[in-house]
Specification:
This protein is an all-alpha fold. It has eight helices and no strands. The two termini are about 25 Å apart. The C terminus is likely disordered.
Amino acid sequence: MFGIDPSFLSSLFQVILIDLVLAGDNAVVIGLAAAGLAPDLRRKAILIGILAATVLRICFALITTQLLSLGGGLLIAGGLLLLWVCWKMFRELTVSEHEEREATEALADADLNTDGKVAGKAPRKTLRQAVIQIIIADVSMSLDNVLAVAGAAQHHFEALIFGLALSVVLMGVAATFIARLLHRFRWIAWIGLILILFVAIRMGLEGLGDFIVIPEIPLLYTPHAAGVAH
């Protein structure tokens, strides 16, 4: 219809949802790490975390998409890594409401539960401890984001570029807002988790298809799809 490939629109929708969920997820992790700091240090740690996540997404995008284009074993490895992402997301989605509230308060720098303190119950820590924790989380989650976007794009280069650019913008501009949105509407994060699981399985099947014969699986795998794209 109107000359637009339906598979491109499907990939674009998946990419946008993955970006939203993972940007919010990354922001919550940053908020949890910064929650135990004094207000002035907390703002500094959150800024460092968001800037680091933005830079890391750009760096990983430059190398990950090229690696995945090689297919085969690297696609399988990418699929397995995304399965690990799903497990991590599941654990984070089942985190206690208290911990998530502390993270959301730290990100918003506001007393959302009206107890007279902003993230007042979080364990105290130093700026150095918080920044180290944030950078370690950023490395993992930025790679997760780039892999998931690349897998969802399904060889649609325009969707891939749009998704990577959107992930950078969201982390740099709207991470705090998205984290609060996901805290309020939990079902969005659960849909994102299911979508990333779908992408992980599809990526793994495409990689396996380079080595063994796999029958067609509707929506998940078309024989020789990976080979045609390379």
